[in-house]
Design a protein that fits this description.
The chain is an alpha+beta fold and 313 residues long. It has helices at 3-18, 20-56, 70-80, 94-105, 110-114, 137-151, 163-205, 207-215, 220-258, 275-297, 304-312; strands spanning 59-64, 86-92, 125-130, 156-160. It has a 4-stranded antiparallel sheet with strand order 2-3-1-4. The protein is elongated, with a radius of gyration of 31 Å.
Length: 313
């Protein structure tokens, strides 16, 4: 480890020794800010992953007219196969549709199914398997266009693919994702002022030291570097604390979800930030700290400390 790095680390340690309260307060505020950013980012990515996983299982049901003849059904199947997004087509006649309904409703409405007057209200249909799932608004729009095209075919009565939940959930995830970006920018901008105040206190405590360095001809880089390094280390430490807090919160969330019958199915889809995202987040946190410090010390070695002292006297 070079002497300059050792000097920077000693400078950082001295700031903590002489301004422990302020350094702890700065670290706490930064860690809390970065924790909120990490939580919202993780939540957005997980909800998007849920949409992608559920979207992979989306099927389109094409309901046919009751009076459609067999040759027209075959012709319609051929037309459906020409759509590039359709990978498989399964025909379900009225009898099979009724049996499927009875199996699903057997435990909910046994009296209704046992009624002799219960008729067969279900039309024949095609179940379409799709090439790609639904992961974003673009996929939703593609799915809507496909449904419109299929619905316009002769012999098709209605088309269903869970339009309501797909569109609403996709819009919710997209809105949350965009809001997360705006929130992250605002919080990170606020972090700059927190770092700047901390560095400003360090500079005020070392004004005489800075004056001496200016008088002996120290370069701007020599004087400014320890403070920029201090901001960088503070940002990195706060980011690590935030990641640790969010990791603990993540495992707690999964344990709560695992205990719920409804939410337990989502547990495998909820994962923590991957290594690349964590590294990027750490780099951003360190960068925010370094930039906040640089904004504060950029005037040092331009006669800043001497002029500041003159103004006080």
């Amino acid at each position: 480890m070079s002497a300059s790095i050792m000097d920077d680390l000693k400078s950082f340690r001295r700031s903590w020794v002489h301004h422990t309260g302020m350094q702890l307060a700065t670290l706490s505020v930064l860690a809390a800010t970065f924790s909120v950013v990490a939580f919202v980012l993780s939540l957005s990515l997980n909800l998007k992953r849920v949409l992608s996983n559920w979207g992979d299982g989306v099927q389109m049901t094409v309901y046919l007219n009751d009076d459609l003849e067999e040759d027209k059904i075959k012709k319609l199947k051929t037309e459906l196969g020409r759509f590039k997004d359709v990978t498989a087509i399964n025909f379900v006649n009225r009898e099979v549709a009724t049996e499927n309904f009875k199996k699903q409703m057997a435990s909910y409405a046994p009296d209704l199914l046992a009624d002799a007057d219960f008729s067969n209200p279900f039309p024949a249909s095609f179940k379409l398997s799709l090439k790609t799932g639904v992961a974003d608004d673009a996929d939703v729009a593609r799915l809507e266009n496909l449904a419109t095209a299929v619905g316009s075919l002769d012999g098709v009565e209605d088309v269903s693919y869970g339009q309501s939940w797909v569109k609403n959930y996709s819009s919710f995830v997209s809105t949350l994702y965009a809001s997360s970006g705006v929130m992250a920018v605002i919080l990170l901008a606020g972090s700059l002022f927190v770092v700047a105040n901390s560095i400003r206190a360090s500079i005020s405590a070392r004004r005489e030291e800075i004056q001496i360095l200016e008088l002996v001809g120290a370069t701007a880089a020599m004087i400014r570097r320890p403070y920029v390094v201090e901001g960088l280390i503070m940002g990195a430490l706060a980011t690590l604390v935030a990641i640790g807090l969010n990791l603990g919160l993540h495992f707690w969330q999964k344990s709560v979800m695992a205990g719920s019958i409804v939410l337990s199915r989502l547990v495998p889809m909820f994962t923590f930030l991957d290594a690349a995202t964590i590294f990027s987040f750490l780099a951003v946190g360190a960068g925010v700290g370094a930039f906040g410090a640089w904004v504060t010390v950029r005037k040092i070695n331009d006669g800043w400390s001497a002029s500041a002292q003159g103004a006080e006297s």
